[in-house]
Each structure stands twice: as C-alpha cells, then as structure tokens.
Automatic annotation (TrEMBL):
It comes from Homo sapiens (Human). GO terms for cellular component: membrane. This is Solute carrier family 22 member 18. It is found in: Membrane. PROSITE patterns: MFS. PANTHER family: SOLUTE CARRIER FAMILY 22 MEMBER 18. One of its GO terms (molecular function) is transmembrane transporter activity. Residues 22-134 form the Major facilitator superfamily (MFS) profile domain.
Amino acid sequence: MQGARAPRDQGQSPGRMSALGRSSVILLTYVLAATELTCLFMQFSIVPYLSRKLGLDSIAFGYLQTTFGVLQLLGGPVFGRFADQRGARAALTLSFLAALALYLLLAAASSPALPGVYLLFASRLPGALMHTLP
C-alpha cells in the first residue's frame, strides 16, 4: 500500500491555503496591523498641534477627541456584526480602508486651501470602523 498514498497537496480543495500561504498571510496581517497602529499613534500626537494651528481652543479639541472615542464605542458592535456576516478578510479590509480615509482627511485638513476645521472633525468619522486589533 505504499504507492496508494497521495501527495499532501492533492487532497486539499482549491480554496484552502497551503502552510506557506497561510504563514505569509499571517505575516502580512501583522505587518499591516503594526503599520496601522503606528499611524494611529502618530496621528494622536499630530492632532493637538494641528488643532492649535487651525485655531481650535482646548474645549473644541476635547470635543474632537470625545467624538473619536464615542464613534469607536458605537461603531464596535456595528463592525462586529459586519465581521460576523462578511468574514475576517472583509472586516480587515474595511478597517484598513477606514484608517486610510481618516489619514487622508487628516492630511487634507492641514491644507490652507481647504476648510481645515471641518475636515479635522470629518476625519474622526471613519474611526467608527477602525477596529483592526479586535
């Protein structure tokens, strides 16, 4: 019965990943999550200076930070439901796209030709879907 054994890769369905493919996807996920967290912490340190440059006082800055926290709190169950229905890949893609939108709006807020304060507050809105780690 030695010749009856099939090679390992032939028994898998086409939709399943090999061990090499799975490890590279996990590595890519870790790299993307680390990059997203680095950018998140960078924007936490940039937003106070940007808000001062745009003329916000400390109370408006508090509203800005509270808006981000509340949107993440309220967006958690919505994002979790989306992840349950669509899967982890779609959820991570949505989370990274939301982070991209936040960073692009934040970059646009620093442009003098655009309404910076409105874009600064609008940059907080994608925070409802930024749940990479969970």
